[in-house]
Amino acid sequence: MEVQLAPVRAWDDFFPGSDRFARPDFKDISKWNNRVVSNLLYYQTNYLIVAAAVVSIVGFLSPLNMLIGGAVVVLVFMGFVWVSHNKDILRRLKKQYPTTFVVVIMLSSYFLISYLGDVMVFMFGITLPLLLMFVHASLRLRNIKNKLENKMEGIGLKKTPMGIILDALEQQEDSINKLADYISKVKE
């Protein structure tokens, strides 16, 4: 299936008034995770634009360190994904504790970058965009269009870059489970 870039969502939908934002239910981690995954899929192009702006500014100020930092994070991410696919215990940990998995990747990247170069480039050029995405995805309430788009991604009708990353982190449910849930909701 061909990878498609999701459309840019309207900026007034992406960052509307406070009525569309709410604190997640910290007691129900599964529900919070679903909100984050749904928003990451739905607003992925908006997140990409925001991240590109931050990376461009930091990259302009320190291009070599930004290139090194980006390469280190990508290599560490790919290494952790490869190891977790080949070790069953790590796969289960990654599926149960996705945030911990991402934090381990970021901490490993941080230590490698501190050894190789400028830590501030890592903090502002790599961590800040990820933090902004996570905070927005955690706080933004989902809407009907958001849920429909995510169902289409989940059952395999379309494939997007964020969907590929979430698949690597094993944060996409099995397509059959999503299709069954969707059909049961449509029947109601």
From TrEMBL:
Keywords (A to Z) from UniProt: Acetylation, Cell membrane, Cytoplasm, Cytoskeleton, Endoplasmic reticulum, Membrane, Transmembrane, Transmembrane helix
Cellular-component GO terms for this entry: cytoskeleton; endoplasmic reticulum membrane; plasma membrane
List, in alphabetical order, the GO biological process terms annotated in this UniProt record. Answer: negative regulation of transport
Which residues are listed as membrane-spanning?
A: 40-61, 67-85, 97-113, 119-139
Q: Does the keyword Nucleus apply?
A: no
Report the membrane topology from the UniProt record: Multi-pass membrane protein
UniProt keyword annotation of tRNA-binding present = no
Protein location: Cell membrane; Cytoplasm, Cytoskeleton; Endoplasmic reticulum membrane; Membrane
User: Which protein family is named in the record?
Assistant: Belongs to the PRA1 family.
Designated name of the protein: PRA1 family protein
